[in-house]
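Lab channel / #folding
Pinned by the channel admin:
"Please post every new chain as: sequence first, then the structure tokens as a reply. Keep commentary short and put observations after the output so the thread stays searchable."

First post following the new format, from NK:
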Amino acid sequence: MDGRTERRSAASGAEGKLAASIAHEISNPLDALLNLLYLLESEATLTVKGHHYLMLAREEVDRVSQIAHTALRDFRDTPCPKDTSVPRLLGAVVDFYQSRFDSQGISVKTRYCHHGNLAVYAGPLRQVFSNLLLNAADAMPKGGRLYARVAAAHEWTGKERRGLRVTLADTGCGIPADKLPKILLPFFTTKGPAGNGLGLSLVKDIVQKHRGVLRIRSSTKPGRSGSVFSIFLPAA
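Reply from TO:
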């Protein structure tokens, strides 16, 4: 191992320890906050809209808690890829956010293949799906259509590998052409102060970890706007 490789390995290890430390520090207060939200729902006299907002708050806190626990577990266990049903994994994430989609007037169309097992890192891949689904929801604040599909496929170019293609598409505002080449860069965001620019960078890294391919198409044309994220995951 040369010096550069050793430095990269040491840096990666330090980053992993920092991420695990942060996850550990925030997991306990998040769990406490989640419990308080449950107690508030049962104790407080709220309007129908108030209960709805409380439910959304609980879902968001639960999501952050899941991310923290997953990061901590992944660091401790350093898991290898495991045989996983990718359609079921995506379906579970879609179901988790269904109430949010309903509240925004977003209709969800799903189509999953029957035989969709691959050796994957389930926790990180779940985070990919979560990030892309929430980005789609943010792009459709006044409602729209969201498509989630998993299909058996061959790689379009390159090695012609067999695997699965996961497609997430929306009828949202789209990504301007001048910003499209930059959206996978760390800290670049189209959301202004509401975004941190790390979500799609994380998606890219996780897809690469699976030796996969990420393709993005988007349009801002009125009446034809929207984005399509296509992920090819190769079979072992």
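NK: The beta strands are 82-85, 106-112, 117-120, 144-154, 162-170, 213-219, 226-234.
TO: also worth noting, Residues 3-15 have pLDDT under 50 and may be disordered.
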